[in-house]
Amino acid sequence: EVQLVESGGGLVQPGRSLRLSCAASGFTFDDYAMHWVRQAPGKGLEWVSGISWNSGSIGYADSVKGRFTISRDNAKNSLYLQMNSLRAEDTALYYCAKDGVYCSSTSCPAGYYMDVWGKGTTVTVSS
Amino acid sequence: EIVLTQSPGTLSLSPGERATLSCRASQSVSSSYLAWYQQKPGQAPRLLIYGASSRATGIPDRFSGSGSGTDFTLTISRLEPEDFAVYYCQQYGSSPGTFGQGTRLEIK
How many Å apart are CA A116 and CA A18, to the nearest integer? Predict the structure, then answer.
């Protein structure tokens, strides 16, 4: 069974940092791009960042560019999101998601659509 | 970035009826790279449709997607009680990928 389990969320003060992790299992992790998607309380979905299987292609939403860094460790089947300079508007449930397209060439994009989602980890930015 | 506008914001229908949800893009979505997701309260989103019209694994055939360019539609042919949820479209043809604001499908 394909499974994604996020961790690392919590309450953090504005301006501080937090690192989210996502543990993947049940599929060949390094055959797929991965994504982070967030959902503010009572709001819709917002794509945050995506990374290709070999980290060769990375993309960010404008709202987090320069503050957040996505990375992956294929040996550990893990995805990460380093979040710096956090703001109140970053408060959300953060989902890790697997890309739906198999791509293992050297020039894969940073992802397409998301076919498997974790349950999410909550980040609250408040003083 | 491409802005997706979903309509209506809320759709009130009864089980057994047909639902038609719209997603309009501010510019053409390349290669019909459009997906639809369903989200129920307290749950993660679930992929329904990708490539504008391809059903994801395990999705009942009462769900269908259509459209191209800037106009896309999700149709649920006969609503079942479990179909009442929020639906989002997402374009992945250009970076950054973007979601629509969602359509809430509620029981009338």
Answer: 24
Number of H helices, E strands in chain A: 0, 11
| Distant-in-sequence, close-in-space partners of A94: CB < 8 Å, separation ≥ 6 | A6, A9, A20, A36, A37, A38, A48, A81, A120, A121, A122, A123
Q: Using one digit for the tens of pLDDT, what is the confidence trace for A70-92?
A: 999 999 999 999 999 999 999 99
Sequence-distant (6+) residues with CB within 8 A of A9 are: A18, A20, A94, A121, A122, A123, A124
Residue-wise pLDDT for A1-56, tens only, equals: 999 999 999 999 999 999 999 999 999 999 999 999 999 999 999 999 999 999 99
Question: Does residue A65 contact residue B102 with C-beta atoms inside 8 Å?
Answer: no
Q: How far is B74 from chain A (nearest CA, A)?
A: 16
In the numeric block, the tokens 């979505």 are attached to B29
Give SS3 for B82: helix
The whole-chain average pLDDT of chain B stands at: 96
Chain A nearest-CA residue for B95: A59
Which residues have CB under 8 Å from A12's CB, separation 6+? A18, A86, A123, A124, A125
Q: Closest Cα partner for A111 from A38, A69, A54?
A: A54
CA trace torsion A95, B12, B8, B73 (10° rounding):
80
The answer to whether the beta carbons of residues B34 and B27 sit under 8 Å apart is: no
Contact criterion met (CB < 8 Å) for A61 and B96: yes
